[in-house]
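Input chain follows. Return structure tokens only.
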Amino acid sequence: MDIVFIGIPLAILTNHQLFTDFNKMKGVNMEKHILIADDEPSIRKSIAYILSSYGYKVSQAEDGEEALSLILTKQKQEDSIDLLVTDNQMPNMSGIELIHELDKKRISLPTVVVSGSLDVELMNKLLLHGCSYIIEKPFNINELLQKVNIAMEQQKVIIEDNILCHPQLVS
């Protein structure tokens, strides 16, 4: 069993798990754009590297304010963000504050919160404001990839349902 250390033990998995999952997913996600918000550069860059290795387009933000700005900017372009992976404890704007701002602006974005300090009250607040999944640090790479893929699939179903129910919106 290999342990991948990036600042903190980021993930524990076997080489077989990593390469089996990698071969199944590589190249499948090229058009999907994920924003990673984390104030710890080593964690942010590691998650970005892993997700880009699996075929996702990845952007990075150092805190919630930068993430919100990127989401709003990209929303006006054809390169919008499809999923947010965020830490909760960040300077300027925390993950929960970021999710709350997105909720207030009626921006529906699947969100995976990755945090080293979670309690029941915080988890309830995150879920109440639209967080899709919560993962505690240190985490398994496969768990992150699974949550990202499930959140992407759920968003795809929502979009397809909206198109079927409101075909006039597609023109």
